[in-house]
Amino acid sequence: MTRTSPGPTLGVVGGGQLGRMMGEAAAPLGVELVVADPTPDCPASPVVRDQLVGGFEDEETFRDLAERADVLTFEIELADPDVLERVAEETDTPVHPKPETLRTIQDKLVQKRRLSEAGVPVPDFRAVETADELREACEELGYPAMLKARTGGYDGRGNVPVSGPEDVEAAIDDVAGPAMVEEMIDFERELAVMGCRGDDERDAFPVTETIHEEEILRESVAPARASEAVQERAREVALDVLDAMDGRGVFGIELFQTSDDEILLNEIAPRPHNSGHWTIEGCHTSQFEQHVRAVMGLPLGSTEQRDPTVSTNVLGDVDERQSAALYGDEAVFATDRAHLHWYGKHEVYELRKMGHVTMTGERDVDELLTDVRELRDGLTFRE
Questions:
Q1: Residue 183 annotated as lining a ligand binding site
Q2: Binding residue per annotation — 274?
Q3: Among candidate residues 108, 93, 59, the one with its CA nearest the CA of residue 79
């Protein structure tokens, strides 16, 4: 690809924090970004060439985006794959990952069936729509179990634990739509692998340990505090997942390490993922640069890790929605090898992801984790 100014253009459906960090990574490569997002002045807008304001199912917006781009991608699963596919064909603009991959991943039941058929190890699961079906499935899978909305859930939304028969009715009412139920996994830890598919190559970033609370990712630890054998098995499963996907890009692959050290697939995101944010400082190529390279048809960059790295999310700690103002960040800037990433969201509310802090260093990850938690705990949106 010849370097020119302006350079080739990547059209991105979605302009949240992932689009923002993708724009930051694309600029040094000479790749321009145009994003489409329904929120005016979205988080990505200050760092990209332009924003088109339109919904994630708006065909006119998608067409305008395609006409300005050499390649299309997406940073949010709410993008309509049917509209993407139609616009891509009409404008002869390639989409990566492929809309079919997005279509598969949007429905958790379809996703699980597809991966299970491909030989990827997954928790036992059942499709359910009614309380009677859920009750019958839980009798087979055992209590407790996890009920998941088939579409639309993220950050724990749409996931409802079912501890016993007395929870069945309320769980079905809470999900309020087609669902699937999975066996509850007795896991040792949760892991994540950012897998990468290029034109004729595939790779994976180092295995990451992910720490969740209330089903929201709080911290990432790389390398994971797991044995080499467990990490190698996690990488193998991630590469098998990539073989079942269609199109180029980075895929966030969430895994369980069970109590007997088996690896089971939890879920897939067909895009850069929160669990890979640490790669910005922690690897020679970040997950965002890698995604841009992959979808634009460039060779993949090195996924080699520089130093042990930990990352913690900065979440909203206010009771009511309000204008975003972060206090206490002086300590982050005063700490060597600590890096604040601010997402540029105008409003904050409880548990909203507003940024993250990363720390790197040639020392034990437990020490790094203690230090980054101390920095995070000094940050607040309360005056």
A1: yes
A2: no
A3: 59
